[in-house]
Amino acid sequence: MAQIEVQRQPAISVPNAVAPQTGGVQFIPTSLYVGDLDVTVTDEQLFQLFGQVARVASVRICRDLATGRSLGYGYVNYSNPRDAARALDLLNFTPLNNKPIRIMYSQRDPSLRKSGTANIFIKNLDKSIDHKALHDTFSAFGNILSCKISTDGFGQSKGYGFVQFDSEESAQNAIDKLNGMLINDKQVYVGHFLRKQERETTSSKTKFNNVYVKNLSESTTDEDLKTIFGEYGEITSAVIMRDADGKSKCFGFVNFEIADDAAKAVEALNGKKFEEKEWYVGKAQKKSEREHELKSRFEQTVKEAADKLKGMNLYVKNLDDSIDDEKLKELFSEYGKIISCKVMRDPSGVSKGSGFVAFSTPEEASRALAEMNHKLVVSKPLYVALAQKQEERRASLQAQFSQMRPLAIPSVAPRMPMYPSGAPGLGQQFLYGQAPPAIIPQAGFGYQQQLVPGVRPGGPPVPNFFVPMVQQGQRPGGRRGAGPFQQAQQPGTCQSIPTWL
């Protein structure tokens, strides 16, 4: 068997390199995605590193909006495609803060990444092979858009990785040449990348030799199984599972020598009655496969029920704790025929304050919705709406959020809130009766300049004070909404990158 010895080679500069322009691959040839960044890397460091290659138009490290912590990736933009191509060639896998960075062209179309086009999966890799070594091995088969070794929390290889080419031809060529080859004394598997759903669908269609049979009579023996199933092919084993006392658990397994014989036995014997017992005969499954199948069946049942009751099922919340199923049904029964009524409760039986009422027709549900929404019941106003599936509610909320616009406030430097010496810091509160520091609005806000004791008009600039706004009758730091000057955070421009890139 052929042996490939992976060696780390230094990057070779290609001054005239240009961004690949293959069909179907959509990216901005001047924008680079930089991944595997150490959390301590700053925008300035990224700017200086990439500025050594050519003039950089802009850099941005993507950060968590709440904590400000680096997400481990960012973007570098050039003005010239050749500069971007040269930076990718020269700087890919360069250590930055003792951690090699990974560069690829920024792909703004997420459908390309999620489709798995020209993406291959490699497993059984030697733990010594890193991103650079994997890239060097597969670069001989075509232009690589992304290359990654999957690692654990300590940065150690998990023994598998992913390589995405710019064309299916290159990917297929790599599979044909490297699948089953020895790389660093280990035989590797190289194949097309499949998403989880595709892998599960593929595994469900695979042939099987082991058959599971249940609902057996307690008197059924191993020999009975061999006799019945032996009519369909050669059997290597047949066993009925028993407890510690030797009593039958009424299920067992039959293993055939040929997979086609196992399939014939399942088709012929599933649902047949033996000793007044209807047998279930099917493919022997792993626990994870059974759980997935049961989950799929449950989700399908829920979907069918929801589709059947669409427009007829009402969601009711803000219910008083004294309202049970009967009282809820009584409240809504005057508007039509109720086919189901349920108050939701926690495991201890305490009402969650919400429930569902399903009518026989959409017209009845609409009438109940119009009459009962905001109606006082036991001194609490009800909230009534058409019941929605979780994905529908999520889509509705996302649509509402996308229509929100932040309050337009002129950009004023400095942009971060600043406090003068001795003033309360971020997160501190003012005590009742304590006057806050005087606010000096910046020019352009439409306010007149206020005089502050000890400060001369026209004197040196005064620090930009920041004072939390407290509405009248509202406790500082309370749980109610912020004051009118709080502006919504703008959604970030950084894109999410799948874990395998």
UniProtKB/TrEMBL annotation:
<keyword id="KW-0677">Repeat</keyword>
<keyword id="KW-0810">Translation regulation</keyword>
<dbReference type="InterPro" id="IPR035979">
    <property type="entry name" value="RBD_domain_sf"/>
</dbReference>
<dbReference type="InterPro" id="IPR000504">
    <property type="entry name" value="RRM_dom"/>
</dbReference>
<dbReference type="InterPro" id="IPR012677">
    <property type="entry name" value="Nucleotide-bd_a/b_plait_sf"/>
</dbReference>
<dbReference type="Pfam" id="PF00076">
    <property type="entry name" value="RRM_1"/>
</dbReference>
<dbReference type="GO" id="GO:0003723">
    <property type="term" value="F:RNA binding"/>
</dbReference>
<keyword id="KW-0963">Cytoplasm</keyword>
<dbReference type="GO" id="GO:1990904">
    <property type="term" value="C:ribonucleoprotein complex"/>
</dbReference>
<dbReference type="InterPro" id="IPR006515">
    <property type="entry name" value="PABP_1234"/>
</dbReference>
<dbReference type="GO" id="GO:0005737">
    <property type="term" value="C:cytoplasm"/>
</dbReference>
<dbReference type="InterPro" id="IPR003954">
    <property type="entry name" value="RRM_euk-type"/>
</dbReference>
<dbReference type="InterPro" id="IPR002343">
    <property type="entry name" value="Hud_Sxl_RNA"/>
</dbReference>
<feature type="domain" description="RRM">
    <location>
        <begin position="209"/>
        <end position="286"/>
    </location>
</feature>
<feature type="region of interest" description="Disordered">
    <location>
        <begin position="473"/>
        <end position="501"/>
    </location>
</feature>
<protein>
    <recommendedName>
        <fullName>RRM domain-containing protein</fullName>
    </recommendedName>
</protein>
<feature type="domain" description="RRM">
    <location>
        <begin position="30"/>
        <end position="108"/>
    </location>
</feature>
<feature type="domain" description="RRM">
    <location>
        <begin position="118"/>
        <end position="195"/>
    </location>
</feature>
<feature type="domain" description="RRM">
    <location>
        <begin position="312"/>
        <end position="389"/>
    </location>
</feature>
<feature type="compositionally biased region" description="Low complexity">
    <location>
        <begin position="482"/>
        <end position="492"/>
    </location>
</feature>
<dbReference type="InterPro" id="IPR045305">
    <property type="entry name" value="RRM2_I_PABPs"/>
</dbReference>
<keyword id="KW-0694">RNA-binding</keyword>
<comment type="similarity">
    <text>Belongs to the polyadenylate-binding protein type-1 family.</text>
</comment>
<dbReference type="GO" id="GO:0006417">
    <property type="term" value="P:regulation of translation"/>
</dbReference>
